[in-house]
């Protein structure tokens, strides 16, 4: 990132093509803005078609040698990268907070959860193993090879600009592919710093490339004949578009999309721990998580906990992410703030009970920030906008149910399936919940059940398109092609078997 020669010397974000950070020749730019102050941090280019083609061509050329690089050599690069990320954690968190808004501790968590995937990528030697069946017929062995696909691409969202890129390119590259990354144009700075560290760790020129842009860049990635697979995380609207367009172009695609996560609270739950968990999951990161908790189903006597939940939410500190003790930072943009405020207004109009109004909070020193405080509605029902739409803000909807069965039925009726949770001290209730709930990721007294990278992210139903998730064992299959080899060897002492026109091997 270099300074331009304009009046304000605003830095420009570079493209990465063939191992070199290059200035885009585009005429279209957008600004990267600090959401707490409205300060312009940088200008990011909307890459030209020629630049996108050059990035893909660079990756295609690099694949010829990278796919033959020993697996141990690839693994050691990611051992080095995880070390570099740890050494630069404070800088990465500060960059992330400045452009995205989340608190510094949450920004470190963002980086750390990505770091865990980098560590997992360093174990690729144990992950990318085929299978062997010896002597499946007379003198015949069958075995499989997991071979890389070629050029792969990733399209990442604004809400986790460190973690989600690290979900993608380390696993793709560790398995022998080359990669073209398109970060969110709203906050690409921490992503680019991670890319710099990846090159420092030893990723060769052309193996990792970066292009920037909006819809046109996304479409170019979907359409490009030399890209074999695409990983996407973002909204349902864009993810559905990417999946349909890229699949029609013959690509392998995985899309992690929108959500409307629910938690059930049973009356026997540990009250203080449950209230803390709900408040943290609903309002942390200003609700800008696909695994946030925007809906809580209160069963029976737990419906009496609403005043205490409101009181808990009122204790959360709203401020810039850089300020010590901040719990809730700003939303990513002015447009996001206006959208969330509009949905709160619609919730009131639809008849939900506004228990806590977080609109237009006073934040001294950051009056121009995109702040919305914790907001709670009760008596929420399907058909209300605040229930049907993914708000992506610090707004919690409370729903009443008379029984666990009713609560499970209510959640299963929602089309989304990213994550769900139950709060209870009953093992029998928890077991019934995990068996009967039709959601891909389940938490038991855990409000945000995102699995560690030893497992795979397993969102389901309308929250996911494609059958394999990012990171974990599933992503090894996503980024490789299984080749099955059936072999028989003969020597001079082997008896001749004669001509055989049947299908069997003997």
UniProtKB/TrEMBL annotation:
Q: What is its EC number?
A: 1.2.1.27
Q: Where is the signal peptide?
A: none
Query: What GO terms describe the biological role, i.e. biological process, of this protein?
Result: L-valine catabolic process; thymine catabolic process
Q: Where is the Aldehyde dehydrogenase domain?
A: 21-485
Key word Cytoplasm present in the record? no
The reply on keyword Membrane is: no
Keyword list (alphabetical) reads: NAD, Oxidoreductase
Q: Which top class of enzyme applies to this chain?
A: oxidoreductase
Q: Which domain of life is it from?
A: Bacteria
Q: Which GO terms describe its molecular function?
A: methylmalonate-semialdehyde dehydrogenase (acylating, NAD) activity
Cite the Pfam families for this sequence: Aldedh
**UniProt xrefs under Gene3D superfamilies:** Aldehyde Dehydrogenase, Chain A, domain 1, Aldehyde Dehydrogenase, Chain A, domain 2
**What does the similarity note say?**
Belongs to the aldehyde dehydrogenase family.
Protein's UniProt name: methylmalonate-semialdehyde dehydrogenase (CoA acylating)
Organism annotation = Lampropedia hyalina DSM 16112
Taxonomic lineage of the native organism? Bacteria, Pseudomonadati, Pseudomonadota, Betaproteobacteria, Burkholderiales
